[in-house]
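Example with several molecule types.
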Amino acid sequence: MYKYDQYDQAMVDARVEEFRDQARRRLEGKLTEDQFKPLRLMNGLYLQLHAYMLRVAIPYGTLNARQMEALADIAEKYDRGYGHFTTRQNIQYNWIKLEDAADILADLSKVEMHAIQTSGNCIRNISADHFAGAAADEVVDPRPYAELMRQWSSFHPEFTYLPRKFKIAVIGSETDRAAMRLHDIGIRIVKRDGEVGAQFYAGGGMGRTPMIAPLIRDFVPLDQLITYAEACLRVYNRYGRRDNKYKARIKILVHELGAAEYTRQVEEEFAHMLSVGVEPPLEELARIAAHFELPEPLRRPGPRAGTPLTPERIKNIGVPGQARDGGFEAWALNNTHPHRHPDYVSAVISLKPAGGIPGDATSEQMRVVAKLARHYSFDELRVMHTQNLLLPHVAIADLPALWQALDAAGLGSPNMDTIEDIIACPGLDYCSLANARSIPLAQRISERFAASGRTEVVGELKLKISGCINACGHHHAGHIGILGVDKKGKENFQLSLGGSEAEDVSLAKITGPGFDEDGVIAAVEKVTDVYLATRADGERFLDTYRRIGMEPFKEALYG
Amino acid sequence: MKILTGNDLRSGAVTWWNGNGWSLFVDDAVDVGDDAEEILAREEAARRVNVPYAIEARIDAAGNVRPAHIKDRVRALGPTVRRDLAVPTANKTGWDWVI
Amino acid sequence: MAKDIGTSPDEVQFRFRDDEPVDHGTVTVDACCDQTNATAVRIEPGDDARLLLPFLDRLALVEVNFPSFGDGRGYSAARILREAGYTGELRAVGQVLIDQLSHMRRCGFDSFAPDKRLDEDDAARAFATWVNVYQRAADRRATIADKRHEA
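Resulting C-alpha cells for the full complex:
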C-alpha cells in the first residue's frame, strides 16, 4: 500500500489548517455561504437534508486496518456511530457539525487520510478496480497510476474551478469492475508488446444525460500520462459549457464537438504541453509502484493464477470433517474472486444484509473488518463501487474462520452481484437533491427475494436505484434500474432494463410508465419471472434481456 | 400557512422559525405571512440560520404543523429508515404523516 | 481607437513585480488584435488567450477578468500566456477572493486587483498556504516529485 512521506503528510496537514481558517472566516461572517460553499465542498462538506455531510476520500478504494479503525472512531466521536460507503469507494458521515469538521480532518490526517476534492467542480477522488493488485485476470496493477494521478490532481492550480465535477477511474484488466467508461475520463492500463501504457476514454457519465465514453487515445506512453491528462482537462476547462449546469460535464462537450474533434483539440494541446514539460520524472512512478509490491507470500509461485472456487474445492477447505454452518459454502462460492496466487482469493464482505441499508456500516462492524484485514489479508482492505468491502488477499484455507467471524458480525451475506446486492443512493431519506426514497425500496426488494429463496435461483442480477436524475445510484447501468421521481408530490418510480457498467457497458432503457413503491417492487418480480421463464442455459438476466429484447418484459408489466 | 426553515450554521441541524428564534421542532414553526423575505434576509445576514427558505405548511386536526412537501416532512423528523435517530419529541404522533 | 477599459494601478492590492505599472487602461482582445500599438489588454472568460500570442512582445499588462469566482477559464488563460513566454504583468481582476490567491499565483498571476479589498492578514496566509506543490505550473517551482528525486 502507498505510504505518505513527509511531503504528502505536509500537504494534507496544510489543507487541514487551510480549511480550519476557511471555517473560521465563515463563522465570523467574512465569507458568505455562496463563497464558502465551493470551499467546503472541495473538502467534502455538504449541507444535506438533516445536517452537514462529510465525504472522506478513500483513494482507489484502498485502506489499511488502522485507517478503517480511524473511520470507525470518527463515526462514534463526531457522528452517530455509522458511516455510508459510496459508489465511488468513499465513505460519508451524515450528521456532522461545521464546528467539528476541521478536527475531523485533523484526525484523518493522522492516518494519512483526507476529504480533499471529494466534491466541488474539481478533479474528484480517483477510483480504481477494487480487485487491483489481486485479481487473477489483471494485466497491470492500476493503483500506482491512480496514486500518481491523485497527487497530480490534488490542489491543481488550473483545474479547481472546472465547469463541473470531474471523475477519473483507472483499471488494469480487460474486465471492467470500476464503471470505467461511465467516468469523465476512464483509463485502462494496458501492455502492448511488453510496453505498459494507458488507453484513454473521455466523456462518459451518468446523470440526466448518460453517455458511454468513447476511446480517444489507444496508447499513451507512461512517461506522458500526466501530460495527456492535463491536455484533456485544459480543453475541457476552456471549452466545457458554463451557461447551463446540466450541460457542463465533459460528456456534453465531447458529444457536441464529436469525439474526433475533441480528440484533435486534446492532441494539439498535448503536443504543446509536451514542449512545456509538465510530466513528473518517471522515477516518481517507480517510487510509487514500489509501495504496491505484493508481500512475499502473495507473489505468484508459478505461471498459474487462481481460478474460481468450485463446490468440490470448497468442501475440502480446512480440516476434513470440521463442523461448519451450511451458510459457509454458499458464501465461499459466491463472495470470492480468483486471486493471482492460486492459494488465495479476494473475499467480498457484503454490506447488503437482506432488509438492510446498502453500504451502511456501524463503527463496530468497521472495527471487526479492520481486525479481520489485519489477521487474514496482510492488513489491507478495499471499498467496492458496489458499496461493499473486501479483503483482497485471503488464504483459501482461512476462509471458514473468516466467514464465521463475518457472519457473527452480520457481514456474511452470500449475495455478491445478486439481486440483494443492490446499489442505492441515500435518496430522500438523507439527500437534499432527491425526489424519492431509494433505501426503503432496496430494503423491501432484498427482503422479499431473500425470504422467497429466489435470490439464488435468479443468480447474477445487478439492481441499481437512484432517488433522482443525478443517478448516484447508477440506475442507467443496472441490469434493472430504478429511478425515483416526484409525481405531483408523490414518490414515483421508473423502471429500466438492460444497463451494464462492466466491459459490456450499455445504458438501460425505460420500460414505460412509472409505478408507486408497491408497484415497482411487483414489477421487479414480474421481470425476473419473465427472465426465469425464458432464459437459456447459463444466461444471466442481462443476457436474456439482450437476446429477447424489451417487448416480453413490457408485455408482462403493462399487457 | 407559510413557515420558515433552514439549518443551523454551526451544527447543521434543521431549524424552524418560531417567531423569536430558531427551534429544532417543526411544531414550533409559526405562520410568517408576508414577512418571510424580511425575516429570512435579516436572520441569514446575522448568521443565526444558514440557507433558510419559506415553505407551505398546514396545521392538522391535532394542532401539529405539517410541511406540504415530503422533503420538508422528512427534514422535520429524520430519515424514515433510521427511526431510532428521529428528532426527539417531534415524532410524538408517529411517522404516518411523513410519507 | 478602442475605448480604454480595466483597472488602474490604484486598484491593485497585491503586486509581485518591481517594474512600474502601466498607467493606462486596457483594450479588449479583439481590439488588441486589430491595433498594432496597444500595450495593455483585458481577457474576458470566453476569450481565447492564444489570439494574443503574436503580440506578446509589445504587451506590458494583461488583465484577466473573473466576473464570477467560480468560472475558472482565466486560470488556463494565465498559464497559456506564461507557457508562451509572456513576462509582463498578469493581473487578476474582478471576483478575486482569498481562497483563489494561491492557485492564481501558481498559474502565473503576479498582480491582483480584487473588486472588494481583501483582509491583508488573510491574504498573506493564503499566499503562503502551499510550502510544497505537486504539479509543474507557471510559477516554475520545483515540485514534490522533483524534490524526491533530486540527485
